[in-house]
Write a sequence for this structure.
């Protein structure tokens, strides 16, 4: 028997499908919505200048910067909106914003 | 049924809410609502009820604090007036969109400027599209009864919408009237504890007050409209339960000597009693006049309104606010819109009167009824403006 394929809807199609007050009962479902396509610039780290202070991780409003195994930092580009706050806050100047088309 | 007591209506409104087992009150004082704020604070401070009183720094904070409390499942109450209600404005449609059953008393007062603390309906009218259930009271007893009923209406699982009870400032809030309170036990039976549809809790994380893209926003507006329109039948149901338990009957639209009336006047709030006296005087002289009182302003009870005015030749709509630069008072504008598609409809005259506490006597209402004899009428006219 063929397995019935259920399509996960990105948003409700009709007003009747909305939860009262547009409440969302699935915790953490914002992760399904990849906001990375919004950006026009992406952060690029120069680890030679990075002092591993983690200020980029603290200031990232999207929470998409993570510490790597070797203690440096990188952004998850599926979610990074390219706001540039990490580059602005990075006082050793290890992060630069590069145009997406470059 | 409890005994009759003489009490100021603002204090009585707070006492009525104290019977409702509220969890949180956040009230910022403003004339003519201040006695509600002060008395609510007293009741909670004295430990007469088990509730939190949040001493907020503004009305914007009051309604915002209650949005959080209500989302966490609390029964939440506030009261305001005029500029305070205007300051709440930003949050009002958010509360209704989030389907939070917060209840509020509004001591109706003119909006500045010029600064005027007296009674009219210019404060509530700019909030009419906020998605709140909007009720009007005519006297102190109605303020008590509707304050208690508002929680039951708002929290009904079919409704889940906030509710504002309008109590005319000074005309009602500062009157000392003979009033009857139901007992705590009677109210507890009528109004069981709130059972929230969902609540914010760390053990079961959910999101409230979400974001909607252009793909979804229209559907959210439709859902809110259906919910608010659907609230009317719950209002009627709660009114009928109240009548059974406490003997006082309420209707979403009420009439007075309207049955064979050729000319009807429509009022909202405390002016209804003066208008009724004018009707009595004119009836004595054989004039076929009557009164229609709109108790439920939002959702607008279209069918009940049409039934109430069926058969009359002229309808005088008295607005206590003006849509400045528009087509008259907000109540008349709605009514004309409702009647536009009807084959048989009365001539509608719109009078804007009683602004900023300008007193209207029985004689003034007789004069306003007299406008029905005019051959030609304006889209609206001011009553009693000096020229």
């Amino acid at each position: 028997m063929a397995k019935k394929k259920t399509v996960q809807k990105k948003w409700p199609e009709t007003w009747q499908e909305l939860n009262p007050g547009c409440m969302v009962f699935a915790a953490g479902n914002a992760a399904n919505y990849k906001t990375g396509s919004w950006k026009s610039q992406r952060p690029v780290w120069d680890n030679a200048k990075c002092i591993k202070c983690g200020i980029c991780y603290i200031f990232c409003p999207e929470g998409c910067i993570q510490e790597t195994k070797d203690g440096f930092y990188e952004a998850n580009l599926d979610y990074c909106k390219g706001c540039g706050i990490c580059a602005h806050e990075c006082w050793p100047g290890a992060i630069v914003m590069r145009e997406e088309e470059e | 049924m409890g005994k009759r007591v003489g009490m100021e209506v603002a204090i009585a409104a707070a006492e009525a809410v104290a019977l409702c087992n509220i969890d949180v009150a956040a009230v910022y004082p403003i004339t003519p609502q201040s006695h509600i704020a002060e008395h609510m604070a007293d009741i909670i401070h004295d430990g007469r009820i088990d509730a939190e009183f949040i001493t907020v720094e503004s009305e914007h904070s009051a309604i915002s604090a209650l949005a959080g409390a209500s989302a966490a499942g609390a029964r939440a109450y506030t009261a305001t007036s005029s500029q305070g209600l205007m300051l709440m404005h930003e949050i009002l449609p958010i509360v209704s969109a989030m389907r939070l059953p917060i209840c509020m008393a509004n001591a109706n007062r003119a909006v500045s400027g010029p600064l005027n603390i007296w009674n009219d309906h210019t404060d509530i009218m700019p909030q009419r599209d906020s998605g709140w259930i909007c009720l009007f009271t005519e006297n102190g007893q109605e303020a008590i009864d509707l304050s208690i009923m508002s929680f039951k209406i708002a929290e009904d699982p079919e409704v889940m919408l906030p509710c504002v009870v309008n109590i005319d400032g000074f005309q009602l809030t500062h009157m000392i009237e003979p009033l009857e309170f139901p007992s705590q036990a009677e109210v507890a039976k009528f109004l069981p504890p709130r059972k929230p549809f969902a609540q914010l809790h760390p053990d079961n994380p959910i999101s409230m007050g979400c974001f909607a893209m252009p793909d979804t926003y229209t559907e959210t507006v439709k859902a809110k409209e259906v919910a608010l329109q659907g609230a009317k039948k719950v209002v009627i149901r709660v009114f009928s339960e109240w009548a059974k338990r406490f003997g006082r009957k309420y209707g979403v639209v009420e009439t007075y000597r309207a049955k064979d009336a050729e000319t009807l006047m429509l009022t909202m709030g405390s002016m209804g009693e003066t208008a009724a006296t004018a009707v009595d005087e004119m009836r004595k002289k054989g004039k076929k006049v009557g009164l229609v009182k709109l108790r439920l302003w939002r959702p607008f009870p279209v069918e009940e309104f049409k039934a109430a005015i069926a058969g009359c030749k002229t309808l005088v709509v008295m607005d206590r606010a003006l849509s400045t630069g528009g087509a008259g008072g907000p109540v008349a504008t709605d009514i004309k819109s409702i009647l536009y598609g009807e084959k048989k409809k009365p001539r509608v005259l719109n009078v804007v009167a009683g602004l900023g506490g300008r007193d209207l006597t029985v004689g003034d209402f007789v004069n306003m009824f007299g406008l029905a004899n005019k051959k030609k009428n304006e889209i609206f006219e001011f009553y009693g403006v000096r020229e």
